[in-house]
Structure prediction request, 143 residues.
Amino acid sequence: MIERRLVTQALQVLLAAGTGKPCGTGALPQIDGKPAEPPYSVLRSLTLTLDGAPFTDRHEDSHTQYQVDCVARSHGQAEWLADRVRAAVLGRDEHGAWRHALTVPSWTCYARELALDAGPEDDPAAVIVSYVIRFQLSWTPAG
Prediction:
């Protein structure tokens, strides 16, 4: 069975590298022991489902869902970061390969899907704007 912790770590690395902005796992990211300034993202683990074979069989597929909260100081900045997050997770090159690898030992991510794009909050008085995006990642044991 896939180790969820390894998927979360791989996705966090992908988001930080692909957006060029800090990404925390379940909490505000820290830079040199201090809270990051917006814009940044926070990655949250959601559901895990398994397909096919029983738990004792190592050949079942896994589907992981994650939420990415894009945190910014303005509506435009939140949309900018959300665009970068979607491109980092879903972007492909001219040959159809993923632009950013999601590497988990012994597993292959064969599908990445946008599950929800909720958009930014629309409170003009808010000091911080957040934009919620959810992804589903589908995994199969590597050949």
